[in-house]
């Protein structure tokens, strides 16, 4: 345990999203909050392999080791001591590891279409109503149970979710962290344990997942080979954090009180409220809300809404066509356009796979009977308006289904830097929007480690106060209909 007086204690956070990753050093002080230093950034993305979309996990883990090596060097130079390492990534995807501890193949990406064909087979065995009544999980065709149903052979292997797979390669210990386990569709939302009856019904081995571990618990110590390669301290441990990146991000929402909604805005938008217990009603299932575990046993009651993946894919396409523009320039041009333009359903599965995103967006607009000009600014404004409208609908549904009201919306993650999106969200919801921090996921990761080490104490309220103390937050207020016509910036 690290005493609060140990000012040389630092924490390494591995934070990987669906398009990029980073290794950061976090420093925590009860008086000044959390400070982060980015040590190593690296790209991430799907690759076509053997006829499917996969993650290049070998390359990803090599980048993780490169980042940890650099972190160890920086800490040593500063006279600091890395106490532990925490890992968070996106959800649902996994690697299959055999009894010898070998990864049998590069993990599939949730963007692959293989699980589409298994949905009907799964529902023929376990109805959607029964699945939801136990797991409380939003239906998405790429949820882990549908992916596992597509596997041709699961004999002698275990499925390690991506953050658990990284932890295994660092420590040799096989565990499944609970916040990510809750996204599999095979986790009991009330009991907080594996839904073994569902595993049996689907013919999945009960040992398909390793035992559960909670945020704040120690996964294990680093393997000798990892210590040698990275130069990390021999007593450094891997500590479970909210390994589903949204769980860590919500833990770092700088809310004062409990009457808040949150939007974790990145590749996807996770829009919802925090609860003490799952909502497993038929109305909730029909609205496609999910009940996922948060840090300290909370429930992240939310719905996936389309995210900034739409924008980044458009930028990628335009750059390939020689139409590259900076994001600030695109957003400024979009903000200058009048309100009331065409919108799309931003979370339509048609936008899941990478492709010519601008054409797909214009086609979706045509299907509504409207037309979208073939100009980047018009496409960007359509994306921003559509996301804000989707956020507003989702938050209204969350309040109706839970019977609670919210007065403020916290936007964290990359979208908190998007002034146009934040203002349009305030206009669409009629609520105050507080933007920041950008690196909420990494802050939540680091805070879970710091609390486990004894550097800070308290519950989520105390952790969130630390985030607020160390973050420059930006507030956006609702504008009336006349002011909204100006677009904003």
From TrEMBL:
Alphabetical GO CC annotations of the entry are: cytosol
Q: What molecular functions are annotated in GO for this chain?
A: ATP binding; glycerol kinase activity; rhamnulokinase activity
Q: What is its EC number?
A: 2.7.1.5
The Carbohydrate kinase FGGY N-terminal domain covers: 13-250
- A GO BP term, please? glycerol metabolic process
- Pfam families found in the cross-reference section: FGGY_C, FGGY_N
Q: Which UniProt keywords apply?
A: ATP-binding, Disulfide bond, Kinase, Nucleotide-binding, Rhamnose metabolism, Transferase
Domain Carbohydrate kinase FGGY C-terminal per the UniProt entry, residue ranges: 261-453
The text of the family note is: Belongs to the FGGY kinase family.
Q: What is this protein called?
A: Rhamnulokinase
Q: Which organism is it from?
A: Paenarthrobacter aurescens (strain TC1)
Gene field: rhaB
